[in-house]
Write a structure and sequence with these properties.
Layout (H helix, E strand, L loop, with lengths): L1 H52 L6 E2 L5 E22 L4 E9 L4 E10 L2 E8 L6 E8 L3 E23 L2 E28 L8 H4 L4 E2 L3 E16 L6 H6 L3 E19 L5 E24 L1 E2 L12 E2 L4 E2 L6 E2 L12 E10 L4 E13 L2 E16 L2 E17 L1
Parallel strand pairs: 13-16
Antiparallel strand pairs: 1-9, 2-3, 2-4, 2-20, 3-7, 4-5, 6-7, 7-8, 8-10, 10-11, 11-12, 12-17, 12-18, 14-15, 18-19, 19-20
């Protein structure tokens, strides 16, 4: 009997101890959670105060709720013009021709989630055969960074040419063409800018609404751009365009640009801001690499001699000693058409002028906002008789809330 009483007492004591420990652990856990939340709150306050100190509150308002979720609908357009010129000194003739590629407009929907000016986005393409498009952006009181990548291929092009003789136009030709093999085009665009009047002027107010512009203001900006692209139609089924294009089958360009521009935020009434920014840039580094094919056919005036005979693959000459056969006889050549890689040409040039134009409109009310933004870029490069112009533009609409 006494043994049972002792056991019961021990069990009771143990139960009380366990409950006491659980109560202590629970209190400790709550204290830890409170401590962690307090530290996170302190960090948020520090970042918010730091953001507010960087701007003049009479011109720029830093919202109390720094988190934003934005829904976006975006359209991106790319135009590529590829031009070549041909000269025939013996007959005093010349010809200019151009291929224009216009892939479908790339439409997408997505969202952006961020804290102040930094965040991440995701979008889903709605357009087939428009290629792939990626973008990223981050902004602060005095800086902004943009990244865009576009890659696509197309078989549809517009071909135009103009023929000259003794400097006079003798004929023009325009038609839609279907390339025998797809042309691949890729462009990478990285841009950063610095705002001199960052206390009173904000690009972000119109483009990602991390702050609100309260009064009209403008600022000088300096920017740097890294641009690289490739234009590739190296499949030999496109041999016709390679021959009239001096053997070029692929072009790669790397270009670094510096520029100075001006941006202005117009605030006609509270909540609405209209931004316009223009920045011409000059290339400080421009490297063009052209990959070429050498062929046993070439572009030349009609040759009255037609006894070429067979092609010798070792000497790379026809039986009559000539190295090239007129392109007019290409279809009649059967299996005697031959091509091989030639040494690529690398050239450097400076002082290419490009243009960066931006337009942004945003309206804020309560903790919501809407916006419309557009940007246009033009890049061009030239190598001997070859010239490529790329026009890259986008526009997107957005609706967001602050949390």
């Amino acid at each position: 009997m006494i043994g049972r009483i002792i056991i019961c007492c021990l069990l009771f004591s143990l139960n009380v101890a366990v409950q006491g420990q659980e109560t202590t652990d629970s209190v400790t856990t709550q204290e830890n959670k409170s401590g962690l939340m307090a530290r996170l709150h302190q960090i948020q306050q520090y970042l918010d105060n730091k953001a507010k100190k960087k701007v003049d509150s009479n011109y720029i308002e830093v919202p109390k709720k720094p988190w934003r979720v934005i829904l976006r609908y975006k359209e991106n357009v790319v135009d590529v013009d590829y031009s070549q010129s041909l000269d025939f000194p013996a007959t005093n003739e010349q010809a200019d021709w151009n291929l224009c590629f216009e892939p479908p407009v790339a439409s997408s929907v997505g969202f952006w989630v961020g804290y102040h000016g930094t965040g991440f986005s995701y979008s889903k393409s709605l357009t087939k055969n428009a290629g792939r498009y990626y973008s990223f952006s981050s902004t602060g009181a005095k800086y902004g960074i943009n990244f865009r990548l576009r890659r696509f291929n197309t078989e549809d092009a517009k071909f135009s040419s103009t023929a000259y003789e003794n400097g006079q136009v003798t004929g023009k030709y325009d038609t839609d063409v279907n390339m025998a093999s797809p042309v691949w085009i890729r462009s990478v665009y990285i841009n950063g800018y610095y705002v001199f009047n960052g206390r009173r002027y904000s690009q972000a107010a119109a483009y990602n609404q991390s702050v609100i512009q309260r009064r009209s203001a403008g600022s000088l900006l300096v920017g740097a751009t890294w641009y690289q692209s490739s234009f590739d139609y190296a499949d030999i089924s496109n041999a016709f365009f390679m021959i009239i294009g001096h053997g070029i089958s692929r072009i790669k360009v790397h270009q670094a640009n510096l520029g100075i521009g001006y941006g202005y935020n117009w605030v006609p009434f509270r909540g609405l801001v209209v931004n316009v920014m223009a920045m011409p840039t000059v290339s400080v580094y421009n490297r063009v690499k052209a990959y070429k094919y050498e062929m046993n056919y070439g572009l030349a005036p009609e040759d009255p001699v037609d006894d070429y005979g067979n092609w010798n693959t070792e000497t790379k000459r026809w039986a009559n000693g000539k190295t090239h056969k007129s392109i007019l006889m290409l279809k009649e050549s059967g299996n005697q058409f031959e091509y091989w890689d030639a040494e690529p040409e690398v050239k450097y040039s400076m002082l290419r002028i490009n243009l960066d134009l931006r337009l942004g409109i945003a309206y804020n009310w309560s903790n919501c906002f809407i916006g419309v933004q557009a940007q246009f870029n033009n890049f061009h490069y030239k190598s001997d008789n070859c010239k490529v112009n790329i026009y890259d533009a986008y526009a997107h609409m957005s609706f967001g809330v602050r949390l």
